[in-house]
């Protein structure tokens, strides 16, 4: 199994910029990507996904922008934490309600 390589944002931006700058020198965007990807050290498919994301971020392509994706991720994390907190509170409430019933039945 191949190990996933994490590229820095600087490499990501430089690679996308190279594709956009050298697009006119190639018959297609894919040809430009295939030419540039080995120089960056990533796969052509990876570079294509970076270019597509940049197009979404700049409004040239429909889809979820990077900022929106980060916001969704943060909201999902918050929802998960709130659900956990609600579950803890529900269990604590049931525990104390039972303790109160036990106390009343003994008196």
TrEMBL record:
Positions in coiled-coil regions: 65-92
Family matches, as SUPFAM superfamilies: Homeodomain-like
Pfam family name, one: HTH_Tnp_1
Keywords for this protein: Coiled coil, Plasmid
Protein name in the entry: Transposase
Kinase among keywords: no
Origin superkingdom: Bacteria
Organism: Candidatus Methylocalor cossyra
Keyword Coiled coil: yes
Family listed: Belongs to the transposase 8 family.
């Amino acid at each position: 199994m191949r190990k996933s390589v994490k590229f820095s944002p600087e490499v990501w931006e430089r690679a996308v910029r190279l594709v956009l700058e050298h697009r006119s020198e190639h018959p297609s965007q894919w040809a430009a990507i295939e030419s540039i990807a080995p120089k960056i050290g990533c796969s052509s498919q990876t570079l294509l996904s970076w270019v597509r994301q940049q197009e979404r971020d700049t409004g040239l392509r429909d889809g979820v922008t990077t900022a929106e994706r980060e916001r969704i991720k943060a909201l999902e994390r918050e929802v998960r934490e709130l659900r956990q907190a609600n579950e803890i509170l529900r269990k604590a409430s049931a525990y104390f309600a039972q303790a109160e019933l036990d106390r009343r039945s003994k008196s």
